[in-house]
Write a structure and sequence with these properties.
Blueprint lengths: L1 H20 L18 H18 L8 H19 L10 H12 L7 H10 L9 H9 L3 E4 L16 E6 L5 E5 L24 H18 L7 H5 L8 H20 L5
Antiparallel strand pairs: 1-2, 2-3
Helix pairs in contact: 2-3, 6-9
């Protein structure tokens, strides 16, 4: 009985979200941060302004949009602040706090906008993935990154054989990078590139739903970049499941396992 009730409530929440999404645009709200970008007070100020904006837009009925409106305003400000201070985030002591905060506000949105969807490509640049596959293998052997399914990153393209594409995801589940096992180089074209996850996937039902809502649905709507749509990508032939793909992936898995056995220490 309990599972049935849970499913009904879960589907009801999805339907409620759908109703809120129809023909709605977030209002433009000015957020003026007065403290230094990435300082502790910067994040405190964002939280205070979120509460203030939400309070101003709260409605008496339960399914209002106040959380989403406030989160959208904060996200636009954080995006603008990062664009104006791109280098400052690299190696900063509050590096992880920025991503924790940004992702948390994304997951407060009723729906994700095209602008915020494409901003994941800016964020993914801060994953610190090495340029060469050989170096990534060392990190994977130490558990800092993990080899993941590259099923949706093996569509045929002109540059190289996509059967040799492999994907790694960072320990946090946020950052992705795709490599070509033959060249050892990063794949960054808009067809098969790795992207940033606002809500890393999980077998847990709620987290799975969030990953679907904030990462998969926008990808299917807008693609990885505005250069090629999801529909155009999926019309291409896939090299996933080919003998070349299976053999190259298996070989890479074995090499990582060997490095794990040979590794003396991981810093």
């Amino acid at each position: 009985m309990f599972p049935l009730v849970f499913v009904i409530l879960f589907l009801g929440s999805i339907y409620g979200t759908y109703l809120l999404n129809e023909d709605y645009e977030y209002p433009n709200i000015d957020v003026d941060t007065k403290t230094e970008f990435l300082s502790e007070t910067y994040f405190t100020e964002l939280s205070e302004q979120y509460d203030q904006i939400r309070s101003q837009h709260r409605k008496w009925y339960r399914l209002d949009r106040s959380k989403s409106i406030a989160a959208h305003a904060i996200l636009l400000q954080m995006m603008n602040d990062l664009e104006e201070n791109k280098a400052r985030l690299v190696g900063h002591e509050n590096h992880h706090l920025f991503f924790d905060t940004f992702d948390r506000y994304v997951r407060k949105l009723t729906y994700i906008t095209e602008e915020i969807h494409y901003f994941r490509n800016v964020l993914n640049q801060y994953g610190e993935a090495p340029q060469r596959l050989e170096d990534m293998m060392e990190l994977a052997a130490c558990g800092k990154w993990r080899l993941f399914s590259a099923r949706f990153h093996r569509y045929e393209e002109a540059e190289s054989d996509a059967a040799y594409h492999v994907k790694f995801i960072s320990e946090s589940g946020r950052f992705e990078v795709v490599y070509h096992t033959e060249s050892g180089e990063i794949v960054d074209n808009p067809i098969n590139m790795g992207t940033y996850n606002y809500a890393p996937g999980s077998f847990l039902l709620w987290r799975y739903y969030q990953h679907h809502k904030y990462d998969k649905v926008p990808w299917k709507k807008w693609g990885n970049t505005d250069e090629i749509s999801y529909r155009e990508i999926t019309k291409l032939n896939s090299r996933h499941g080919s003998p070349e793909q299976k053999n190259s992936t298996k070989k890479l898995e074995q090499l990582i396992q060997e490095k794990m056995s040979d590794s003396k220490s991981c810093s």
